[in-house]
Amino acid sequence: MDTAYLIETIIKVVVILLIFSALAGIGTYFERKILAFMQRRLGPMYVGPYGLLQVAADGVKLFTKEDIIPTNVVGPVFKLAPVITAATAFMAAAAIPFFPQFTIFGYTVHPIVADLNIGILYILGVMAIGLYGPLLGGMASANKFALLSAARTAAVFISYEVVSGLAILAPIMMVGSLSLIDFNNYQVGGISHWIVWTQPVAFILFWISAFAETGRTPFHLIANDHEIIDGFGTEYSGMRWGLFFIGEYANMFFISFVIPLIFLGGYGDGSLLGALGLIGKVAFFFFFFLWTRAAWPDVRPDQLMWLCWKVLMPLAVINVVITGLVMMF
Question: What residues form the membrane-spanning segments (predicted)?
């Protein structure tokens, strides 16, 4: 293996880990501020100017808080579950091109860890494995409410993975590739070439599924902290709880990259303007996650399953069939 390529890959992995771990903390600050603005509150204000140091204070608290392992839990599984959640979130980032390639000091940098020809399949597969984090965490806990949350988590994740997989199938048929870079290149012609115009149903279905995959409102039945307890994380403390938290916010950022790369032209022709445009799209989708939490109530589990199996999945199947017929003729 080329030494320069190996060093570049290691640097990219470290940068992704550092940046998105930090963004998970910063994301909480923006979420609290946005929710406070929409609900006529102040949000974090006392730790640093405008509460900007609240992120650092929360980080110090998590790292220094006592790590409590309750007596009756299944110890090894209980300890492993948060690691699975955080690890799978960052593993999914390996196939995401965060920016167009650029040259520095005569060396061309490709801002993607691995341009897999099955990149989308890899991302969906790794995010599906992320189900085992909350599932094992709830099952290993000595708490019936954590177990109930784990069961609901499995139901939501498995159901909406079907919808997201079927939704993305139609654009894959059009592009003829599973690489996100190929998806970006397919839409290079400008805004009129964006896949969203030819696949609006797939775009909406995938976007809805993204809320379920990340466990965000109105699909927030996974952690169900609105029911006083914290769902599968009820018996966790300190940094083990923090890993669940980091995994959730990292997934939000990564899915906010995937949606515009597939449907909204990605970074376009690779220019600086295209890169800035991608950042703007990512910021919008991340903001929309927060906006929805402030503006939309949670739904009941039976409503969530009804929506998935009786509305979204049939629509996804019909969309795939229509796409196939159009391409055939």
Answer: 6-30, 80-99, 119-142, 154-174, 194-212, 249-267, 273-292, 304-328
